[in-house]
Structure formats: C-alpha cells, structure tokens
Amino acid sequence: MPAVGSIGGNRRPPAPANRPFTGCPDVLAHALHDLLQQLDNAARRAGRPSPRLLAVSKFQSATAVAELAAAWRRERPGQWPAFGENYVQEAQAKQAALADPDLEWHLIGHLQSNKAREAAALFDWVQSLDRAKLVAALAAHRDSARAPLNVLVQVNIDDEASKHGCRPDQVPALAAAIAAQPRLALRGLMAIPAPLPDPERRRAAFARMRGLFEQLRAAYPQADTLSMGMSEDAALAVAEGATMVRVGTALFGPRVRQPQDGRPD
After folding, report:
1. What's the CA gap between 112 and 71, in Å, rounded?
2. Which residue has the higher pLDDT, 199 or 185?
3. Which domains does the chain carry?
4. Could you give the angle at the alpha carbon of 104 between the alpha carbons of 193 and 62, nearest 5°?
5. CA 255 to CA 149: how far, in whole Å?
6. Which of 158, 140, 157, 139 is nearest to 149 (CA)?
7. Which end of the chain has fewer CB atoms < 10 Å from its terminal CB, N or C?
8. Terminal CA-to-CA distance of the chain, rounded, Å?
9. pLDDT: is 210 or 12 the higher one?
10. Distance between CA 241 and CA 121 in Å, rounded?
C-alpha cells in the first residue's frame, strides 16, 4: 500500500526497480494521466485549486523527458511541461539534446555560487535560493533580453542539519533582496520537510510553510507559488496549500544514477 498522502499508488508499475525509465511511452502516458487525476482529486477534497506539476527528471534520459513532454501536451493542451533538475551540468546536456524551447526548466538542487552564471542562463526558475550571495549572482548574470528569472526561497522548515535552505526567520530579508532586483521575480517559497514516518508531523511542517507563504504574500502579492510535496506526500502537501508539487518516482519509476549522468555541481 502507498503511504498516507502518497501519489501514484493506484497505477501499474512505471519501471523495474533496478533501472530508471528507458523507453515505453505508454507507461509514461498512463503514469502522467493517473498522477494528474490524483492531484486534481486531492485538490478537490481539500477545496483548493489543482497544483502545478513539476516532473523531477534528475538522472532520467533526454528521451524520457521528450516522451513525457509529448504525453503532457496531449493530456493537458496549453500547459507548458515543466521539469526539475538538481544539477546544472545534467540540465545543460538535456537541453542541448532536446532543443525544445517550449519546455520549462526548474533548478531544484543546491546551487553553488560558482554555478550562478550557468544557472541564470539555463533555467526559467530557481527554486533553491537560500542565501543573499546567490541573489546578487543570479541577478548579475540574467540576460536583460530575457524575462526575469523566477525564484523561490528554499526554507529548511524542519531545521535539518543535512538539508539546505534558510531559516524561517531569514525569509523576509531574502525576499526583500530578491524583490529589489529587476532581473529576478520573487515567486514564493520551496521546502523539503523531513521524511517523517508520521503523516501528521509532515502535515504540520506543510502547515508551517503555508503560514510563511501567507505572510510572504501579504508583503509581496506577486508571490504565487508554494512548492512542496513529492511522490510520497503530495496529497498531504496539496491539502495544506501547495500550489506546485515536485514528482519524479511516481512518473518515471525509481532513479538509478548512470555513469553518463552529469556529475554533481
């Protein structure tokens, strides 16, 4: 049985457990259809709008991304398929292989300052902004001919030593710094709560994030995105107000890093 609040528990297995998705478009299409329905149902039960889906494509092939994007366009015409990557180098290779200008790319992994130039050029969104140094670096390297770079402040909501993200009390200062940069667009907050076995404790973390998000929106009405929830807890996140969920396993199956994958940045 899937965990309480999980997504993707009612469909056929997406891929063998010992490898990532390698090439069955029908499997991806069914997975996407089921996932979008489950997200819509979770939102309906909670009395909230359906969240945006971000497909986490870390360690997935460019072929898998292309096939999911094609299925997405058939399933939800008019939507821009959005993909989340952890590493600048891996995203760069996929974008070069795909050459598809109508995909939306999000950086969801930790960003080192020395990769800010590449990130500002490659991505439409950076969801992992967690320190002031990155604000200036991303703004300086965003091409003025392009739309401003959408950014989310990553919050370490459970104060985990192993996680990146700012403290909740640091959000106002970071938000003000972002809002002052014309090449950046403050869009909201992102969090990865601790993987607690008790769903109610996860729900409490999501609720704390919703409170922070509401405070941010009161000061910055343009902030419209609360990115939280993954395959195992997306339904809980939607119930607590997530406007975007980041799902990989429920779409592609388990991730297994391959030798040709981009190295950590």
Report:
1. 33
2. 185
3. 25-252 (3.20.20.10)
4. 95
5. 28
6. 139
7. N
8. 36
9. 210
10. 31
194 vs 152, more confident: 152
Structure letter (DSSP) for residue 166:
B
SS3 of residue 50 by DSSP: coil
Q: Which residue has the tokens 């069955």?
A: 24
Q: How far apart are CA 239 and CA 173, in angstroms?
A: 28
Q: Which of 212, 202, 194, 263 is nearest to 238 (CA)?
A: 202
The CA-atom distances, in angstroms, between 193 and each of 173, 190, 228 are 22, 10, 8
The Cα 36–Cα 41 span in angstroms is: 9
Comparing C-alpha atoms, which of 178, 123, 130 is closest to residue 154? 130
**pTM of the shown model:** 0.89
In which residue are the tokens 């959005």 written?
82
Contacts of 18 (CB under 8 A, 6+ apart): 256
Q: Largest alpha-carbon pair distance within the chain?
A: 50
Beta bridge partners of 82: 104
Residue 65 to residue 103: CA distance in whole angstroms: 10
